[in-house]
Amino acid sequence: MLVRVLGAGAGGGFPQWNCNCENCKAVRAGAAGFVPRTQSSLAVSSDGKAWVLLNASPDLRQQIADARALQPGPEDQKRASPIRAAVITNGDVDHMAGLINLRELQPFSIYAHRRVLNVLNGNSIFNILNAEAVPRTELELGMSTPLSGDGNDLGLTVEAFDVPGKIALYLEDENAGPDLGTDTGDTVGLKVTDQTSGVSFFYIPGCATVDDRLAQRLKGADLLFFDGTLYEDDEMIRQDLMPKTGARMGHISISGANGSIAAFSPLKVKRKIYVHINNSNPVLDDNSPERQQTEAAGWEVGYDGMEIQI
Ligand code: MLT
Ligand code: MN
Ligand code: ZN
Question: Residue 226's closest CA among 14, 10, 1?
Answer without folding.
Answer: 10
